[in-house]
Fold this protein.
Amino acid sequence: MAVPIITFENVTKRFGKVVAVDNVSLSVEEGEFFSLLGPSGCGKTTLLRMLAGFEMPTEGRILIDGQDVSNIPPNRRPVNMVFQSYAVFPHMSVAENVAYGLKIEGVPAPERRRRVEEALDLVQLHGLADRKPDQLSGGQRQRVALARALVKRPRVLLLDEPLSALDAKLREQMRTELCTLQEKVGITFMMVTHDQDEALALASRCAVMNRGLLQQVATPNDLYEFPNSRFVADFIGSVNLFEGVLAVDEPDQAVIRSADLAADIYLDHGVTGGRGTTVWAALRPEKIELSKYVEGVGPPVIDDAPAGSNSVRGIIRHEAYLGSESTYEVEIPGGRRLKVLRSNLTRWDQEDFSLGETVWLSWHACSPAVLLS
Amino acid sequence: MAQSPTPPGPLEYLRRWPLQVWLLGVGTFLYAPLLALVAFSFNDSRRNIVWKGFTLKYYAKVFHDAALIEAFANSLTIAAISTGISLLLGALAALVLWRFRFPGKAGLDGALGLPIVVPEICMGVAMLVFFAKVLPWPQGLVWPLNLGAIIISHVSFSFPFVAVVVRARMASFNRELEEAARDLGAGELQTLRDVILPHMVPSLIAGGFLAFTLSLDDFVITFFTSGPDTVTFPVKVYSMVRFSVTPEVNAASTILIVLTVILTAIALRLQGNQVAAAAHQPVERG
């Protein structure tokens, strides 16, 4: 296997008594769009800043291309950063901003001009080369910051919350553009974000952090469908969590008995826990199906699960119509409310669920994710 | 033309008579003395008490008064040199306080403001004692070295003003700009030159003019540090007034006023451009 482009080896960073990054080991392969995701204060920005060289690790090593950079100052590292505030130099024109890094590097003027032009083309800023930053919009300033970093041809491009300062429409557009840009330049991107949508949409792989600890490193799909902890399940998307014990645990089936839920949860796969283990079942709102309640008739069988029907009765307590989908809060016996999401697939003739109505909630035996921590 | 004026709006205080009277009063007490000074510099009278007629002869006299010219040259030299040193010291002090954390920072911060709040007369006496007992400035040096004591004392009270102004400016500096420069390959000094210094420029201009005018018209502290060979303009004017307020004093003062006004106008203009440019840079933080 090739040498990973970035390696964090047991990296710990303390600020006084506060542990910002706690024994993180992580490697990123060349060409990845890697995203560090987590709530604010989880240490993701510190990790990125250590990679850029603005912070030194208290313990552990950071390697770029297999070379230890822990003690190399930021100006001599083969990485460049797009800052959260963009940090475009206000007293320089767009072209001067982009040329700055090359000038420091000592690139001769003709080549400098050519590369600046190339970089500006890349981020679609041609024609704005002579503008001053105060004549640019937020989105344009961000492009300047991108061009300024990319023109240095870094091994890794670091992005610190790149889209957080843009308005919603522009953010959507820049998301797509960042993706295209990364494919075009083929440079490894490492992005910090607290926005899970952004991370899921952009990254080829994500690391979820919490309180300085690395929680899970996986593809967006795996993070969502196969979270490894309650924190990840809850942080990525929304989820209904049930605490319970494994009543049955066999290779091809398992049953979770939860005090929160009137019915047992049947699974069509085994859990590596063993009977009596405390586990959590994470059920995503869109994986619960709503159907009309008819007295004496059970819910439609949606699964040929080995046993049980994985369904409970509930009363709709809250409904929000969001256009493409509707969300419901359904109260089940025992008082808990479950989040349910339903796509609005047709324009009319939809089954009309109304507040206070009793409904069946049901799900596939493979839908809940079983969490051991 | 009978034009019925619209009644003043709720916030149009300037159209109500009490405020107009107030403004008139303020204007009178601010500018009438200056106007009188300027007017009487053209008065054709030795004693300068009643108006006797227009003349420019006292201006001619000023320009032929070697002692006055020398005092004026001294003042300008002292102001120029002390401004230069104050800018350097003040900017460095501001940078240190802005950039670093170190033990005794609060103490230094407070001590820096001391020359601003200590009464000038105390500063003057302190300087007198200092240059008499602690560090006697050698006598009989060639010009402008003989002005050394005055220059040092001027630096000591004007560089804190520069530091305060520069520091206030640095508070609006986005630290990510510095990091961006480092990230793009710049060393510490290149970052200082290419990113931090350009941000400081407006405050350096403002601080410089502040220091220059403070030095130019300082009387109290200078009075205690100047010797017979090192008379500055304000000290000279004072000694002239002790005999009598002649139109010559008025003329000299008028020249100084005009000079200060011109300098201030230039400063405002330079600073206005810079500040306007800086104000256009919106602060966007997530």
The CA atoms of residues 338 and 348 of chain A lie 25 Å apart. The mean pLDDT of chain A is 88. The longest strand of chain A covers residues 18-28.
